[in-house]
Records
---
Amino acid sequence: MADLTLMPVSESDINWSHEADVVVAGLGVAGATAAIEAARAGADVVALERLGGGGGAAAMSGGFIYLGGGTSLQRALGFDDTAENMKAFMKTALGPGVDEAKIDAYCDESVDHYDWLVEAGVVFDESFWGEPGWEPPHGEGLMYSGGENSAPFNTIIPPAPRGHLPRRASDANGEQAGGYMLMKPLLDLVERLGVRTMYDNRVQSLVVDANGRVVGVLARSYGIDTAIRARRGVVLATGSFAYDNTMLRDHAPHIEGRPAASIESHDGRAILMSQALGAATAHMNATEVAIFCDPQLMARGILVNGRGQRYVNEDTYAGRIAQETLLRQGGDAFLVIDESSYEEALTTDSSTKAMRATPKWVCESVSELEAEIGLPAGALVSTVELFSRFAEQRTDPLFGKKPEWLRPIAGAVAAYDLRGLVGGFTLGGLKTSVDSEVLHVSGAPIPGLYAAGRCTSGVCAGGYASGASLGDGSFFGRRAGVSAAAGA
C-alpha cells in the first residue's frame, strides 16, 4: 500500500502550529552541527528528533571522525599529513565514482573542522594506537582507520593516521564510548545556543509553496500531527535507509537482513520524501560492511574464500576486508592460522576480544584442515604452500601484506568459519552540493531544502574508512546549517 504521507503537501492546505527560520529534522551528528551553525548565523532554529533524545546512531558509535591534513593531534604525535595526500587517499580508497568536489572541500578544511570540534568541547587524547583493530583498545586518540598504511595505498600515497577518536569518559555507571563523547558536547552546545528541540517527533512530509519551494514540514508525535513552518530552509539529517527492507531490496540487497552500525530509525524517509519532489540520488548500492572477527587474528593468518584461495591482504582495514568478502566472494571466508600465531594474537590488546571465539576446526595438518572445511582437494594446501614460501622471504607478491605480519604457516593449524559473519549500513542517498543543497534530477538545487549525513551521498561512493560517516556528517551538517540560515 502506497504511503501517501511521503508526498509533498501544499502550504495552502496547512495551518501552521510552529515556525522558525530553520527546521532541522534529525538530531544526530549532522543535525546537531547544522542546528549549531544555523543558530550561530542568527537563525531561530527548531530541531525535530524522532527518538526521545538526541544523539542518534552517532552517539552509539565508536566515535571515529576521519580528519587529516595536519591536525594539531597528528602533529603532536609526530605524523606529517597534507590536504593533498588526504585527497589522494580518499579519492582512491572511497570510490569508484567519488564526488571530488566534496572531497576537495572536506580535505582543504579538515584542520579547521578539527579545531571547530575542539572549540565545541570535543576532547581528543594525545595518544596513538598502531596495531590492527576496529578501534583502539584503550581509547587512544589517533589510529589508522582506513588501511592507509597497508597495500595498495601505502605504495602510492604517504600514509598518515586519520582516525580521530574522542576521549572516553568514566563515571559510576561505567565507560562512555567515543560516539557518546562526541555527541554530548555538541548537544550541550545546541541547548546553549537556544535551539528549540522537539523530541518524539517524526517528520512525515515536506510542505511546499506555490512555487515549489520547501517551506516547512509535517511531523507526528504520538498520533498528533504538527506543522512547522521554515522561513528560510529545512535541513534533513535523519540517517540512512539501512532499516528499510524495501529500499534495501531495491538498492543494496546484499546487506538485507544484515544491519550493523545503524539504528532502527534509519528508515530512509528523508530520501523518499525528497525523491517525491524530484530529488536525485547517488550510489544507492554502496555499503560499508563489518566482519565480526578480531583484526589481530586476521593479520596473523590468511583469509581464503570458498575455493581455498587468498583474496585480500589480511593486514588492511577490516572494513575493506569485509567488503571484499561480501561483495566479491559471496560472503564465503575462512581464517586459517597456525598455533603459534593464534597464541600470539591472544596475548595482544584489542577492542574486539569478544570476537576471539574458539576456532571451528583444529587439525594437525593443512591437508586435514582442507578436508574438514570441505574445500577442493589441494586448493588450501597449494595456497598455504605458496604463501609460506614467500613469507620465508618476508614478501607477499600477490597482495602486498606487510613484512611484519608475514610468517610461514607451520605445525598445527586452525580455521574460523566467517561465512555470514558480516553486516553493514548504506552509504548512498540524496545527491547534494558542496553547500548541502539537495539537488533535483535536473541538477538544480531544490529551493529551501538541504541535507547532510547518511541520508545523503557524501564522500564515500563505495569504499570506506572508519570515521568517514561522522566526519562527513558533521562537516556537511555545518554547511547545511549555514546554507539554510542564509535562505530567503
---
Amino acid sequence: MSTTRFERSSATRDSFIVKSIILLLSLSFFGIFLLLPLFSVFAEALHKGWVYYLKSIAEPDTWSAIKLTLIAAGISVPLNLIFGVAASWAIAKFDFRGKHLLITLIDIPFSVSPVIAGLIFVLVFGAQGWFGSWLSDHDIRIIFAVPGIVLATIFVTFPFVARELIPLMEAQGREEEEAATVLGANGWQTFWYVTLPNIKWGLLYGVILCNARAMGEFGAVSVVSGHIRGYTNTIPLQVEILYNEYNFVAAFAVASLLALLALLTLAAKTYVEWRLKSETNAPPAIEGPL
C-alpha cells in the first residue's frame, strides 16, 4: 500500500529542471507580454515630464473624452447591474419556458464582434436606418451622439454581471429562498435578506469587470461615435486620434489612464476573489448557546 502511494506521488512530482523551465517560461511570457507593454505606456507618458503629462490630460478634448467615458460607464453599469441580478435570479431560482433562450440571448454580446454590434445600431438608428426618418423628424439624435455611445456600451457589457451570478446562484441552490418563503417572507424580503448577502461578492466582481469593459470599449463605440472631437470621443478613441496625429506622448499619457484603470480593476478583482473564496470556505456559524 505504501509502495503504491509512493509510486503515485513520484509519478506526479516533476524534477527540479522541469519546474525551473516551466517557471522561466511563465515569467518570460509575463514579463514580455504584460509587464513590458505596461512599463512602456508609463515610460512614454512621462517622457517629457510630469508637467506635460498633466497638461495632456487637462487638454479640453481629452477632458471631454474622460467625462463622456464616465457618463457611458455610469449609465451602462447600473442598468446592466439591475438586469444581471434580475436575469440571474430568474434563471437560477425559477423554472420557466424560454430559460435556455434567455441564457443564449445573454451570451450574444460574447459571440458578436463589437464592430458588428456598432453597425447594427447604425442600421437601426442611423439616418438611413429603420427608425432614421422618424428620429430625424422628431429631432432625436442617437448615432454620432451620446445616446448611441451609451447603447453600444450597454450592449458590449450586457453579459458580465449576469454571467458572473448565474453559476454562483445555481451552486447555492434554492433551499434558503424556499425556506424564507415558507416562513412568510415576500419576494423583496427574500432577495434582500437571503439572496443578496450570499451573492454580494460575486455581484461586486461582475460590476468591476463590467465597469472595466465599459471604460475600455473601442470597437462598437468607434462605429457609432463618428469621432467628433470634444463631443463623441471616449478615452480609447481620443488615444487613437492623438496617436494618428503623431502626438505620441499625449497619446500615451491618456492611455496611461486606462492602464491605471486596469491595475485598479486587477487589485479590486483580486480582493473580491479572496473574499469570495474565504466566505465559501468558511465554516458555518454556530447560533445559539453551546
